[in-house]
Amino acid sequence: MSTSAVSSASPSIDSNHSQKRIFLNDYVGFDTITQQIEKKLLKKGFQFNIMVVGQSGLGKSTLVNTLFASHLIDSKGRLEASESARQTTEIETVSHVIEENGVRLRLNIVDTPGYGDQVNNDNCWEPIIRYIKDQHSAYLRKELTARRERYIVDTRVHCCLFFITPSGHSLKPIDIVVLQKLTEVVNVVPVIAKSDSLTFEERNAFKQRIKAELQFHNIRLYPYENEEDDEIEKSLNDSIWELIPFAIIGSERDIITTDDKKVIRGRKTRGGAIINVEDPEHCEFIQLRNFLTRTHLQDLIETTALIHYESFRTKQLMAIKESSSAYP
After folding, report:
1. Whether the Cβ atoms of residue 75 and residue 94 lie closer than 8 Å to each other
2. Distance CA 138, CA 121 (A)
3. Is the pLDDT of residue 118 over 70?
4. pLDDT-above-90 percentage for the chain
5. Which end of the chain is more exposed for a tag (fewer CB within 10 A), N or C?
6. 102: alpha, beta or left, given left = phi > 0 and alpha = psi -120 to 50?
């Protein structure tokens, strides 16, 4: 069987060190390397760390549970109508191992206190930024030890879901500041929480105002432009940028529709209408889930390592070098 391959040409053959394509006379078998890699990765499993950030009462915990179709994190919402809303008072991390079709994923969910809830909100974002940087620092320390672990446990935050209050007006000044701080250290994906509180016209107008504000303040959100992306990847990212910020609705409840008696994941409005969170005509939850889990999960992990962590690592090592040179 004849198989094509790429072979590095020697300088004596090609002074430009270019690669030329040659044809094998028989089957060698190195094309199974993808299967070998897949087998090792499946055995090791994968890890994904997601953080939720936003003001209290926006359904952060509920959305995470809806995304992964499991009750992974306790909701802080009201249990009864007369009950006051419960709040996350400190950064909490919940870990679960979930499995789907033989693929094992260790999922770490980082729940953060609602920012902007206090009378004085000066630097209310600092604990969140400090937590993200602390995970980078912990990873760097393990990486620089003389006898490194075979597999370094990765607690770096791969994705930050930023929840926007569905005011219908514009981003709050504190939202702008927090977004600017977050995008320097983590992949940020903004979502409009509880978007069913807006009409479709209000939602679309709100989105356009947010897009204009993000562009005006030069806030760089994920996914990023990459010269290595092919046309399919560029087209996919363009379609995602059209949706950002995602207008979402979260729900852990199963509802039986009145017409065809189907069981759906959704909620009922006060008027009795049924909202299906997985219906693209109702909200953009399904597009967000596909984006986070089916098309960009691995890229979120790699981007964290290659961009945010690498930037942190470079700064830390340069600081160590400068301090050591100052005291010979």
Report:
1. no
2. 28
3. no
4. 52
5. C
6. left
Structure tokens at 294: 């089916």
CB 51 within 8 A of CB 107: no
Look up residue 166 and give its two tokens: 């569905």
- What residue type is 317 in one-letter code? L
In angstroms, the CA 201 to CA 198 distance is 8
- Taking residues 290-308, what's their average pLDDT? 96
Rounded Cα–Cα distance for residues 34 and 40 (Å): 10
Q: Encoding tokens for residue 191? A: 């979502």
Say how far apart CA 124 and CA 32 lie, in whole Å: 51
Q: Check whether 84 has a pLDDT greater than 50.
A: no
Tens of pLDDT, residues 62-74? 899 889 888 888 7
Backbone dihedral angles phi then psi of residue 72, each to the nearest 5 degrees: -100, -30
Residue 245, phi-psi category: left (phi > 0), alpha (psi -120 to 50), beta (remainder): beta
**pTM, two decimal places:** 0.84
**In 3D, which of 218, 286, 217 has the Cα closest to residue 250?**
286
- Residue 233 pairs in a beta bridge with none
d(CA 227, CA 235) in angstroms, rounded, equals 13
Q: Rounded to an integer, what is the distance from CA 290 to the centroid of its chain? A: 12
Residue 75 clears pLDDT 80, i.e. is over it:
no
Residue 170: half-sphere exposure toward Cβ, Cα within 13 Å:
9
Residue with the two structure tokens 């094509």: 4
Do 247 and 195 touch, CB atoms closer than 8 A? yes
Q: In what order do the strands lie in the sheet with 103-111?
A: 92-100, 103-111, 46-53, 159-164, 188-192, 246-247
Phi, psi at residue 171, to the nearest 5°?
-70, 145
CA distances from 84 to 3, 49, 56, 77, 150 (A): 68, 30, 12, 9, 48
